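B., you asked whether I could sanity-check this one before it goes into the benchmark set. Here's the sequence:
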Amino acid sequence: MNVNVQEAIVEQIKQQAVPLNTPNDLDDLIEAIGDKKYVLLGEATHGTSEFYKLRTELTRKLIQTKGFSFIAVEGDWPSCYEVNRYVKQYKDAKPNTREVLEGFNRWPTWMWANEEVGELVDWLQRHNADKPMGQRIGFYGLDVYSLWESFEEIERYLIEKGTPEQLAIARSAFACFDSYDKEGQNYGASAAFYGESCKDEVVKLLQELHAKRVRYDEDSEAALSAELNALVAVNAENYYRTMVRHDAESWNIRDRHMTEALQRLVQYHGPDAKVIVWEHNTHIGDARATDMRADGMVNVGQLVREAHGEADVFAIGFGTYRGTVIAAKDWGAPVTAMQVPAAQPGSWEELMHRAGAHDQILLLRREDPLLGHEVLGHRAIGVVYRQAYERGNYVPSVMARRYDAFVHVDESHALHPLTIEKVLM
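And here's what the prediction gave me:
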């Protein structure tokens, strides 16, 4: 991109962006969201305190002023469902926020077991306290990684509420995975190269649990949980079987799973349901506006827009110019606070900083002649972060087509994780 185009974008940001100094400044976003039913809140990292705090404040405002029904996040169904039980105050829920968050014990634990999420959970519990059960705000996980934890939850549910036939179907599915030592990669290699698939068993289990929920909806939330755990089993089996050979397709399986889980939750909550989604920018920012499209990849943001129309979806990206972040140098390595260097020259974050070295909000329009067409590098940091490869952490993006708005934190700070023993699976 030439210097003149960069300067034109900087001038446009200066004219259109509004400062973000207090939580009340987020009201511009609330007004822009209007009556949309799907609000997708991103993050440029999985370890930045400001992203979590700003999303909490937006979530609170949306629930209080727009009547949103539930929150769905990039987390495992079983652990998030324990949060759901706690904030809805089920009689056998865990007694406090700390114990609930200790359920996030699979690496990377810090994504949800952190002080910032604890503040959100505390608020949800207080908000729900005087509401009828049907009006209490839920908290659910959309991700696909909890294969063995989901099996355990299904078995517990069926022992209590299922039939002997259903329990036998479930245990047959579980037994198929017994020889893989709770390692998805082990199963994936066997399935991909030796044809040792458990697909039929888990599909049969999902069909059985879905049929039961349709017939017996008086206990629909517990039955819903069993069904979503079975959905995890079906799609995790496919994910691990595919990831050995096809990175792009395994990504697609994961994001299609998250979209299907989201849709089942919306159907459960009824035709007036409104949902807030918390996921990384790479999941909620429309993949068609990035280089993911050329690689044949899709994501939640694209799929939700395609399914429900852009008029009913509002996606907000988040980013930072510099700061610190919680991440690890390798998969499964100890978590640490790392420096996030100043953004690369000419990147989206650097242009936002050049337009104003402060936090700011920018509403985006698809038809914009610059931001709706120019391709800009946009930083993305995952749970593994190596500053030596910083140049590779930028996703080429058409910003006004990827998001409906962008929140820029000029200098950000590392998340505050709880100290929880990690478990690798």
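One thing to flag: Residues 3-142+255-412 form a domain with the EreA/ChaN-like  fold fold (CATH 3.40.1660.10). Otherwise nothing jumped out at me.
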